[in-house]
Design brief:
368 residues; alpha+beta; Thrombin, subunit H; 2 domains; six-stranded antiparallel beta barrel; six-stranded antiparallel barrel
């Protein structure tokens, strides 16, 4: 077998996608795919990209669509949407440039302007079916419940915070104050406060986010925080199995909510291989919540749901949390990151939830 260190990995991924490879190359690809998380992510993302291009960018289909769109979309709206979509593609390429060959990146940007004209058709019919699960807080009763809960808390940090503009969920990813949440939840944040079901209320700041994965890391910056202690859950690193029983914890309301179901697909919305599809009830406020298997292993992060189908939700795979940690800029301290093993394996579900609940927080996002 060829030396893994000397192989052109981009070329190997291209052969995997085209299916034009030798038995030796297939064996080498399988070994790398199963042992190297970065290679696996790169291969999955490239395949999704190529599949999308092959599906949506055939010349004859584009020509037919464009002829219809030109008669329906005025020039002003077309220019506005084209600019918005092109900028989105460029930002995506910048984030993913270490995963894509140069030629692929150039090709994406080159077709962006043409593809933008077709996207309105798909966005109205399909993208509208996907809902991010951050929640804009409007309910006055919800305001009162949160204020009363804050006043009754025994926590020494009793700042008089007003309810945030958006809320969602985050969970601890290190023993010393780092948490994971959804990047879409904090993208407009001027300040962020987290609170768990016991009333512990702490200020956090963004550390790093990856919009392509819809994941972000935040850090507790409150002087009253003394550390989490050992985390009860871990990341095993294995892909979850179809039909596997799963559960999640989150804050679609003022107190912690438990949901359970099963893993219904190994890919997410419109075949996105960075995510799972799960049959579990979720609502606005569940964004950023942990998705766990029956042993208490972290397998994903809740990110959205399909509005056209009841009980269909999506979660970013836990392997992308590991990728996020690899992308982090150098930190002054060396955090004690989440381990591989769960300490709640073997406990019944109520016992598991009780031990995990203290590490799951409501995220309140404030805008000046």
């Amino acid at each position: 077998m060829k030396d893994m260190m000397n192989i052109d990995r981009n070329e190997l991924i291209d052969k995997y996608i085209s299916g034009e490879w030798s038995a030796e190359e297939r064996e080498l690809f399988t070994a790398l795919y199963n042992s190297d998380t970065t290679f696996k992510i790169s291969a999955d993302q490239r395949k999704v990209l190529v599949d999308a291009l092959q599906t949506h960018h055939k010349r004859k289909e584009l020509k037919a669509m464009l002829e219809g769109f030109h008669s329906e979309i005025d020039n002003h709206e077309a220019r506005k949407y084209k600019t918005k979509f092109t900028n989105r593609i460029i930002r995506f390429v910048q984030v993913q440039k270490h995963n894509f060959a140069v030629a692929s990146s150039v090709a994406i940007i080159a077709i962006a302007s043409t593809f933008a004209m077709t996207t309105k058709y798909f966005s109205d019919k399909r993208m509208g079916e996907y809902q991010e699960l951050n929640q804009e807080i409007r309910d006055i009763k919800g305001y009162q419940d949160q204020i009363l809960k804050s006043l009754k808390s025994n926590n020494s940090n009793k700042n008089n915070y007003h309810p945030g503009k958006f809320n969602g969920t985050a969970f601890a990813i290190s023993t010393d104050g780092y948490l994971v949440t959804s990047s879409h939840l904090i993208r407009t944040a001027d300040s962020i406060v987290i609170q768990n079901d016991n009333g512990l209320r702490l200020k956090v700041e963004p550390v790093y986010k990856n919009v392509a994965y819809d994941l972000a890391i935040v850090k507790i910056v409150d002087e009253n925080f003394k550390g989490f202690g050992k985390l009860p859950y871990g990341i095993s690193g294995k892909e979850a199995s179809l039909g596997e029983k799963i559960f999640t914890l989150g804050f679609p309301r003022a107190d912690l909510v438990y949901g359970e179901g099963s893993l219904s697909a190994s890919s997410g919305y419109m075949g996105d291989t960075t995510s799972y599809q799960v049959s579990v009830p979720v609502n606005p406020g569940n964004s950023g919540g942990p998705l766990l298997d029956s042993k208490g292993n972290l397998i994903g992060v809740i990110s959205g749901k399909q509005t056209a189908s009841e009980g269909v939700a999506f979660a970013v795979k836990a392997s992308y949390i590991q990728q996020l940690l690899m992308e982090l800029p150098e930190l002054e301290e060396q955090p004690q990151w989440i381990g591989k093993y769960s300490s709640v394996n073997g406990l019944n579900r109520p016992q598991q939830v009780q031990k995990i609940a203290d590490f799951v927080f409501e995220v309140n996002v404030y805008n000046d």
